[in-house]
Design brief:
about 300 residues; alpha/beta; UDP-N-acetylmuramoyl-L-alanine:D-glutamate ligase; kinase; Carboh/pur_kinase_PfkB_CS
Length: about 300
């Protein structure tokens, strides 16, 4: 079984649930739940990949603080190899997640998130792996300028690559000079429907996005399932969502990412089967509070698919 490398941002999530409505300035709301959990798109993907059964290494940074210790301990508990994560003086990043039944609002202090530059991802480091995944592209301002070269180098060594971007807080989208060059060396681009709409200029037109991707555009559509497009914009596969009771959508897209990578790289599934497995991973995630909470083994995902 090939090894998978996940590189990028690390932070904690402070999750508040059970809020009656969005916050209003000058007023106080009472939530019914609160947890400190592993955060960051890349870390949640790595944790869920490992729990599914993949052999996963992580490259990135944490601060020398309690949050950094928490992140390292959590990753190790999920079975992710943390020996290549460096500890620096910058405080570990923090995201405050306000969760509702169908969506969430995120407030982020970057800390170490925007400090990792990927300088340790050399050819010698990349060579033993079969796949490289990076999440939260728009938050990783130090990594952005180097990522196209890193992905190009990885693919030249025989690795496949995948990218998730997250919401762009600056809302520059394709005006970011580093996104299109990175997508030109990306095998699987994994945005959600809202991100595709923003990338396409305000309308959901995946064809406008797919043309930039070296491989396949995989769109996560929440309750509408998922769809895949090739570079000419043609839809090549789609799957519905699974009927589950939604508790918290935090990390659902990252769980989908993990399921898709596991299905394609470990199970060697064809694209439609990989989408089904990924959708089941995302469905399981929304039944839990926190992105990596109760991350399942692959057998549990197969059981969920059999049930529906």
């Amino acid at each position: 079984m090939g090894k998978i490398l996940v590189a990028g941002e690390l932070n904690v999530d402070l999750v508040m649930s059970g809020l009656p409505h969005s916050p209003i300035l000058g007023r106080e709301l009472i939530g019914t739940g609160f947890q400190q959990v592993l955060g960051s798109s890349s870390a949640i993907t790595a944790a869920r990949l490992s729990m599914l059964g993949a052999d996963v290494d992580f490259y990135g940074l944490v601060g020398g603080d309690d949050f950094g210790v928490f992140v390292l301990r959590q990753l190790a508990d999920f079975g992710v190899h943390t020996g290549h994560i460096q500890t620096v003086d910058t405080p570990t990043g923090v995201t405050i997640a306000l969760t509702y039944s169908q969506d969430r609002a995120l407030l982020t202090y970057p800390g170490t998130i925007d400090q990792y530059a990927g300088q340790d991802l050399t050819s010698d480091v990349l060579r033993p792996y079969t796949h490289l995944h990076v999440g939260s592209f728009f938050l990783q301002t130090s990594l952005q300028p180097k990522l196209a070269c890193i992905f190009e180098q990885a693919r030249a060594l025989g690795l496949t690559t995948s990218l998730d971007i997250g919401w762009d807080p600056t809302e520059t989208w394709f005006d970011n000079p580093y996104l299109a060059p990175t997508l030109a060396h990306t095998d699987y681009f994994l945005p959600n429907e809202d991100e595709v709409t923003a990338l396409a200029g305000g309308d959901y037109m995946p064809q406008r996005v797919a043309v930039h991707v070296a491989g396949a555009l995989i769109v996560k559509r929440g309750s509408r399932g998922a769809a895949a497009y090739q570079a000419n914009g043609e839809e090549i596969a789609s799957v519905p969502s699974l009927p589950v009771t939604v508790i918290d959508t935090t990390g659902a897209g990252d769980a989908f990412n993990a399921g898709f990578i596991y299905a394609t790289k470990i199970l060697n599934h064809a694209l439609p089967e990989a989408l089904r497995f990924a959708a089941a991973c995302g469905a399981q995630a929304v039944t839990q509070l926190g992105g990596a909470t109760n991350a399942p083994a692959a057998e549990s995902i197969f059981a969920l698919l059999n049930q529906v």
